[in-house]
Design a protein that fits this description.
With 133 residues, the protein is mainly alpha-helical. Helices cover 69% and strands 0% of the residues. The structure holds heme C. The site of heme C has 23 residues, from helix 3, helix 4, helix 5, helix 6 and helix 7.
Length: 133
């Protein structure tokens, strides 16, 4: 390598080759970062589920909730919620938040408990009953 021109060209070609993947990695990181920030924003500022909002605003009736419970839930949780196939529900509201209780009923995420679709008034009644157990 006695030729200084050739040497300089080689060095700059080398630099270019090593910078390009780094630039690509940085761009990818920036894109991933932007995604993470966007998802965090959506999660934090997501408007509350309108159904849950309705249920929480409504005044439930425990007596009405008891009737709904005995028709839909008692086969598994017992006539008074003291447990059969499903767990005993006495004091369940000290273990689960109101939103947690609503989600338990409507989500169907813990089989064999099915997914229920009570209208918001029925759900408010059920919630009131569950809180009275
Ligand atoms: C087919 C049986 C079945 C029916 C019907 C059923 N459940 Fe359940 N339920 C379960 C089982 C099983 C669990 C436990 C799920 C788990 O956590 O793995 C459960 C869990 C629960 C829990 C959470 C208990 C806790 O300690 O965290 C609540 C609250 C509940 N059920 C309410 C209801 C209500 C209200 C209804 C009626 C609308 C209902 N369930 C109908 C089987 C049933």
């Amino acid at each position: 390598m006695d030729n200084p021109v050739l040497e300089t060209q080689l060095t700059s070609a080398e630099t270019e080759a090593s910078v390009r993947p780094r630039r690509l990695a940085l761009t990818l990181l920036a894109i991933i970062g932007a995604f993470v920030v966007a998802i965090a924003f959506i999660t934090i500022f997501r408007p509350p589920d309108p159904y849950i909002g309705d249920v929480l605003r409504l005044q439930g009736s425990a007596a009405q909730g008891k009737v709904i419970f005995q028709m839909n839930c008692a086969t598994c949780h017992g006539l008074t919620g003291d447990g059969l196939v499903g767990p005993n529900l006495h004091h369940v509201s000290s273990r689960k938040s109101r939103i947690g209780l609503i989600q338990q009923v409507i989500s169907g995420k813990t089989p064999p408990m099915p997914q229920f679709q009570p209208n918001s008034q029925e759900m408010a009644d059920l919630l009131r009953y569950l809180e009275s157990l």
